[in-house]
Amino acid sequence: MGAGVADDELIRLAGHHRVATRYTDWRGRAADVPPGTLVAVLGALGVDASSPAAVRAELERHQERARTLPPTLVVRSDPGEGRTADRILAKVRRTLRPAGDLDVRIEPGEPDVLAEPSAEQARPVPLDGSEGDVTLGWHRLHVRQGSREESAALLVAPASLPRPPRMWGLTVQLYALRSRGSWGLGDLHDLADLATWAGRDLGAGFVVANPLHAAEPMPPVSPSPYSPMSRRFPAPLYLRIEDMPEYAALPPEGRERFAAMAARLRTLEGPLDRDAVWTAKLEALEAMYRSSPGIRHDPAFAAFRRRHGAALRDFTTWCAISEEQGTTDWRRWPSALQDAHGHAVLDEPRRGARAEFHAWLQWRLDQQLAGAQKAARDAGMPAGIVHDLAVGVAQGSADAWIYRDELASGMSVGAPPDEFNQRGQDWGQPPWRPTTLAADAYVPYREMLAAALRHGGGLRLDHAMQVSRLWWIPEGASPADGTYVGYDRDAMLGCLVWEAHRAGALVVGEDLGTVEPEVRDDLADRGVLGTSLLWFERDAEGRPKPAAQWRDLSLATVGTHDMPPITGFLHGDHIALRDRLGLLTRPLGEETADHREQLAAWLGLLHAEGLLPDPPDDVLRALADGSDAYDRQVVAALHAFLGRTPARLIGVSLADAVGERRTQNQPGTVDEYPNWRVPLADAQGRPVVLDDLVRDAEVRAVLERVSRESS
């Protein structure tokens, strides 16, 4: 691009569009973003920076737009700080900087997403207080300045979510939790049973499940719940077949055949086989759908389709075309089918019948999700099911097809190099385009949040930075050559808080790793809980942080799904695995010594707190000898320690509770390790099914201790 003035202008242009030109790397050093990256990222945002002349033209356009009303305005409602209407007027004036008077009116009551439309006709009202203050929710803002008129979507969001009561709960990878009733993978009936047992018998307040987002509609089914086909809709893979009304309508020989198929799936050993499970379930679902033609005319089914509208139509059409074309990657379809809203897609009636089948699956999923949440609340859980929201979707996915204009083409989300991934990470997921999202009044984002919260008491945001900034990587570039792109955090958080407020739900943000301090402050200010992982909680000197020093507005757990369970961690299984896979970044001896030192420090703190009766040296010697004599004791002590922290939520991984040693996901691998395919098992590798889990005295002892400490 050239040097001097041209580079300065490129840097200025990037700043106007929240594209970072410099960042602080994991070593604490300032790193400059290559000009080529800036040009590519700006291009993906619809900003031409291909030449000095283009940059200057874009700078002039920015100056012209700077004093116009943005397409979406978000204001917080805080009764303690005066009238909301006054804050709206102040924000409008700061934006437009008018020379004279403004006529500002509100058209109240814009419809919410996933809500039945109101029959009432709204009329614009002035902001002079003559008709009361502006209420929470979406409105339409109209501004007149002389002969010029503008309008914008307006969200009045709650100042903050209420603090949830202090409670403990379980975290679970649902697919790994099998029962004698499920078809080889954990399902929504299992989730309901788990919540019922944990809430009614043990006093748990919530269950955090992995993302239940939609996967491929036909095999092969990707194993990662964090790289889905859609975040807007759930996966039919989690349906309990026998709980569906249509199952009873099957002829006896049909039910017998499917029961035999399910029985075979329960005997499968080794890594979880989603392809086998979905192939069998799909056959059963198609038979049930054919045998019950009357469901197509069910008024409740029609109401469900109306509520989910165009998004459901587009998603189910994508499912039908994927089956027709033999691939879910829309980029490999004929060009006429690559436009989700083109005539070739919308004007094919034969495809509509298959799309209706997929809509029926979503309807039944909606009911079973509702059933799981009802079971949790009936068991006394204050929150119930807390759903997990992945940071993005796969490049060739349904959402990437449906929201093609809202996602940045040629870009992928990832992470810059850090201590553990020194080449950086490319997650292969297209990011939202901030300007297009704002122009759409954040509707795709709002629908995604509302759908996730529809049948849950909470939402966990994987990678909480998705509301503030993401690391964008140009196609074909190294993750190290990406840069941060910022989002309107106030707007993103406003949408999140409003949808959670509507649902009466709590929100947890996974704010680990490189997170700007002001983001954590903003999340806490809005009532969004952070995440505290025991192994990462250290003081300024690197020592384990005492319980009293932990933050209160957080979900506290020992580890996460990207880390080994406690028992595996104690024995250094993760080090041996990474060494075998060639993933260590320093010598094995150095890694082992550091691990032993870290473990000794935590065992020492547990002993000093009176939670671990035996001397730490005895435990360390036993571990060095390969003995598991102290494993259960340490697992219980670590969770009891969590109970002594002020954290509002205490999470116990089901894998930790049963003594599982294998990690569910090993970052840095694809096929070298069975990521997301590890069935729940005990320390000896014996499968653990839900039916036996609820009668396991050792598991109950661990959970009851957590319950006592956190009460």
Automatic annotation (TrEMBL):
Keywords annotated in UniProt: Carbohydrate metabolism, Glycosyltransferase, Transferase
Name of this chain's protein: 4-alpha-glucanotransferase
Family as reported in the entry's similarity comment: Belongs to the disproportionating enzyme family.
Enzyme class, spelled out: transferase
Reaction equation(s) it catalyzes: Transfers a segment of a (1->4)-alpha-D-glucan to a new position in an acceptor, which may be glucose or a (1->4)-alpha-D-glucan
Biological process (GO), any one: carbohydrate metabolic process
Gene that this sequence comes from: malQ
Enzyme Commission number, as recorded: 2.4.1.25
Listed PANTHER family: 4-ALPHA-GLUCANOTRANSFERASE DPE1, CHLOROPLASTIC/AMYLOPLASTIC, 4-ALPHA-GLUCANOTRANSFERASE DPE1, CHLOROPLASTIC_AMYLOPLASTIC
Molecular function via GO: 4-alpha-glucanotransferase activity
Pfam families registered for this protein in UniProt: Glyco_hydro_77 (PF02446)
